[in-house]
Each structure stands twice: as C-alpha cells, then as structure tokens.
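seq:
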Amino acid sequence: MYLHMIIYEGIESSYTERFINFIRQNFDGTEHMFVMFSRSHRYDSLDNIYYIDPSSRKDLFWLKSQASDCHKIMVHSLFDTRTIIWLLSHKRFLNKVSWILWGGDLYNYWIADSHSLKSRIIEMMKRKFIRNIEAIVALVYEDYLFAKQKYNTKAEYRYAFYPNPVDFEMLSHQIQHTPSSTNRILVGNSASLTNNHVEILSALATYKFERDFEIVCPLSYGASNNVDNVIKLGRELFGKRFIPVLNFMPPEEYVKLLSSIDVAIFGHKRQQGLGNILALLYLGKKVYIRSDISTWSFLSRLGIKVFDTKRLVNNEEEKIFEFTQAIGSKNASIVEKEFSDEKCVEIWRNVFDR
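struct:
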C-alpha cells in the first residue's frame, strides 16, 4: 500500500485531481490511498480518498495504523506544517517517506528577504524532517541538489513529474493557431509576488514594438492582495493593451488562451510555473525564463531552447517577437517525447518500485 499525503490546495486542485485519476488509470488503485488533513470534513472515504481531522484522536489513530502498514509514504509538498509535525512525532515512519518537491516548499524560505519567528521555527522542523527521509522526488535534478546542500540530507533522488493538468491531446488541437496582426505577450502565471510583475512590466515599457501588441497577465489565483497593484501598473504603462485574467479558466479555455500567445515571459527567481512553461513549449511558443534558476539548466539539458529574462530586463533584447518555426518545432518534439503519458507512467512505476 502507498499512502499519499495530499497537503497542498486540497483534493480539488487540478494537479491533485489529475494525479489521482492518473494513478487509478495506470496502477492498481486499491494499492494507493490519498489522505488530506481537513477540519471541514469528518472521517470518511471515497474511492480511497480520506479526509482526516487533525483534532480527532480517532482519525489520527487510524492514520497511524495506515502509515504502519504501508510500503511507502508519499508526501506531496511541504506547505502544510501539520504533516511535518505529525511525521516528526512518528519518526519511525521517516525512513519510508518520499517528499514530492513542488518548488516553493523548497525555495520560499531561502529567497525571502527576512524571516519571522514562526517561519524560522517551521524551517527548523523542515530541516529535521528532510534530513531523515528516504527520498526526494523532483522533476529538476538541480532542485534536489539544492535541497541536499541546504539540509544535509542523505535522501536519494527520484525523477518524476506530475501529469500536466493541461494535457497534450488537448493542446494538439490548438497548435494550428491562426496568426494575428496583434502580438500577444504572456506575463507570469499567477498573482503571486514571485512572478515579479513590476520588474517585467517596467522592462517591457522601455521597448519600442514595431507591431501592435497586447500583454496578457493571469491573476486568477495566488496573492490576491497583489492583484490590484499589478492591474494598476499594467494600466498605467500599457492602457487597454494590458489584459488581466481574473477568473479561473477551465482547462479547455486556458489552452485557447495559451495558443493565442506569441511570447511568454516568466520572472520567477526559482523553479516555478513548469506546467505552463511546458505547455507553451509544446505549442511552439517563444518562452523567456531567468538563466540563473534550475529550470534553465533542466530545459537546456534536454536540448530545449529558451530565452533569458535577465537580458530582457536589462534591455539587451533587440527583437522580443523574433522566433523561428524550426526552434518551436524542435522544442515541441522534445517536450512531447520527454513528458508523454507513457513516460509519466514509466517513471512513477520506478518511484513506487524502488
């Protein structure tokens, strides 16, 4: 039995929902149990999905018995400290824990300018936790190396990626997008401050574009207190050319949005937004990311051509929209090969069987 501790965004998140369906379709679903801490649900189950009330002794006793009997414990991100605390209070389970690394659960502490007492205490617990687990599951090997360096862990590396909630079959219907006289630039993937909207939008305002353009900015989730600031700046700099996306889109609609983009610019200073980046690369779009983050090394190692956001910010790019179909097609074929459903099944089977 494999015990999956789903602790970020809940069972209803797109990544979580597709991962659970992916497991059921490609593995023995009876061998995989999905658990989430939630005070809003009493102890119940549906298709091996369990909601655990952290204040209920009955629920916690049940969880302890399942953890004792299972072969592996898969912890999906470290954003919920309740899971860290629970596992640290049951240290005998740590040697069968695999941490599926998301990105922010590794980097957020290290890129912050300052730390509260609470964040330092949480980081201390994370240090004890990561140091004693069996494995770290990550798409980007450099993320694993960063975790190994910072936490002095002997955890082994496992390569894996989540099935993308925007699947390739859906994307393939949009590849023949009809060119428009208006170039569209995508900035960021959410309202989160880590998108560094101010830096990117301010840099774009210094460029003289030969063709008409629009700037599309997804702000439907993330730091809600940042939305108004980004919209205000975007309107001041670009007027009606700035198009904020405020409502969460179903996958089909979001795919149509991505297919209409000519250039995507991401200002993240850590690994983030890979689902969006891979989808855009599969669609043959020009993508900018920073050259000093692990995502750059990872994509370059695969032979994928991306462009440096740092050059754009420093006003060193001459033609932002210049991009050849040959580069786009090569990127798309690599993404299709490396991130296919078949490859996803293969690597997760390796993770479970180790």
